[in-house]
Amino acid sequence: MFVKKSRKFQIILLLLMTLIACGDNAKETAKVKPPTAAPEKTAPAAVVAQPEQNPVPQKTRDVYQWYCTQCHGLKGKGDGINAKHLTVPPRDHTKGEYLETRTDKQLFDAIKLGGLAVGRAPCMPSWGNTLKDETIHSLVRYIRELCECEAL
Ligand code: HEC
Q: What's the pTM value of the predicted model, to 2 decimals?
């Protein structure tokens, strides 16, 4: 008699436990959903917006041709006419392996403040007195286009 009763009790207890466990699970999945749902909504928008946000205007390409090519070369390969006169070779802006190790901020500072400011050679001149910040940001985008790379 006692054994039977305790078995029934055990079964009920088991049922209850599974119910509670299921209930908890349901709550947890409900808890997990919102944060995963949110980025899903914003991700496609960000992907679509990106090309519009960072176009490299012709003006920037012209600035590069005017101020940078004598050292960095017409196509940014580091082979401008001045290159052979410099103690440190101008950076090849088409080389992703190096440029992806540099952040956009480092490239910006190198252009604005000169090579020394970012621990590079002083023969990379500073352009802060010649070019606006906006133009320098755009030059960074242009260099990212040349190297077909982004900061890692
Ligand atoms: C007088 C020659 C000269 C001119 C002109 C010049 N650069 Fe440079 N640049 C260099 C040299 C040399 C280096 C390599 C410095 C080093 O590796 O230590 C360099 C490096 C760089 C780097 C990489 C910095 C790094 O992290 O290694 C960037 C970005 C850069 N130049 C952008 C520009 C831009 C943009 C212009 C035009 C506005 C420009 N440079 C004009 C000589 C020049």
A: 0.73
